[in-house]
Give the backbone structure.
Amino acid sequence: MTIQLTNVYLKRDGSPILKDINWNVEKGEHWVLFGLNGAGKTAILNLLNGYHFPSSGVVKVLGKEFGKVDLREHVRRKIGLVSSSLQEKLYKTDSAYEIVLSGAFTSIGLYDTPTDEMRQKAVSLLESLGALHYADRNYETLSQGEKQRVLIARALMNDPEILILDEPTNGLDFIAREKLLETIERIANTSKAPTLLYVTHHLEEILPIFKKTLLLKNGEVFAAGDTSEMISEGILSKFFELEVEVIWSYERPLLTKKKVLK
Ligand SMILES: Nc1ncnc2c1ncn2[C@@H]1O[C@H](COP(=O)(O)OP(=O)(O)O)[C@@H](O)[C@H]1O
Ligand SMILES: [Mg+2]
């Protein structure tokens, strides 16, 4: 089992953010975490990364139980994270190459001396993500799509067992989004691919590689299971409390609000 959350509650300032979360991710599964703004998606990711401690319940990641081991030491290095909050923390004047390289130490900024092997790896990751030609540019001068590629390369520096992508297409235009999704699909199809967790509130971003979906609503698991079952008109109409239609096109779902005819 890669991730096991059992009866997990998370409170902040006395109010519950996550309520009775039960979620199992098995090795080799790629999951979408789908929910509206404020549903608690990032809160779940912060639990997995060890940034939040559950108020009650058990969090197990890669076989280690939270509280019994120092998760940051044992687990965080094995989790690659791509998120806008990470993007904000990085030193904007570092080059793309330095930002990728610092992923080897899971540090913000580069303090330790990288080995030749690390340097080679950073270059080859930048290359495989189509980002080598802007490796020397300052991070702050990159477009949003270029920044996301750098963050993915950084996240892959430690050959993570889990790769978390928290709304990675935020701020991307259609072409940049589709190119990024292609890259994500390619990562999933490599040998020894990490388990992917893809967080989004856009249904049309759910790629066919994501066979599993968790629907999160108001801090609770609304439903979880096979994507083909979760992304259905019946379940989603209840989820949104609105009659919706789902059309599958090129193995991806498109969502529309149904017109109510009087
Ligand atoms: N540190 C915090 N203190 C209080 N409330 C928080 C804190 N972090 C998040 N929340 C609240 O928890 C809820 C879930 O947030 P979040 O996990 O960021 O949602 P999502 O990622 O699904 O948009 C939101 O209502 C948010 O306002
Ligand atoms: Mg979020």
Q: What stands out?
A: The mean pLDDT is 93. Residues 41-42, 166 surround magnesium ion (ligand 2) (CB under 6 Å). DSSP finds nine helices and twelve strands in the chain. The first strand starts at residue 3 and ends at 12.
